[in-house]
Amino acid sequence: xxxxxxxxxxxxxxxxxxxxxxxxxxxxxxxxxxxxxxxxxxxxxxxxxxxxxxxxxxxxxxxxxxxxxxxxxxxxxxxxxxxxxxxxxxxxxxxxxxxxxxxxxxxxxxxxxxxxxxxxxxxxxxxxxxxxxxxxxxxxxxxxxxxxxxxxxxxxxxxxxxxxxxxx
Length: 168
Prior knowledge:
Layout: E1 2-8, H1 14-23, E2 29-33, H2 40-52, E3 58-61, H3 66-71, E4 77-82, H4 84-91, H5 101-112, E5 115-122, H6 133-152, E6 155-160, E7 163-166
Parallel strand pairs: 1-5, 1-6, 2-3, 2-4, 4-5
Antiparallel strand pairs: 6-7
């Protein structure tokens, strides 16, 4: 298993960097997309991302069942998950309470994944502490998820203004 975790702010170049790394392999790539269309702006963002990807890559669009999307991959698969930030937001759809069962299931699937994986997520915890309980719970949950994934990852990269900075 080779896990590469790519973090950064909005429009920092995370997705493009993950796609560039995955495109370097001659093997087929599965792109697991987690974004949900809720408005015209998000629809445009998704369309932009779709246009950037090679057309021969397989795309799986998921809500919260990221664990199944990962475990159904064959041994040696090349997979991009984009992005964990939006995926975790789906776990907050019934807030309160926070449904972290999909997170636990995903982490278990990640530990048994046998392939090459590039995961993209937004680093949102470098600012001020949010005022509302929902926002604080979300930032805290995402931060904990990032820490768990970074501990498992072979490589961690922070994207800043399109520049990849090696963290691990």
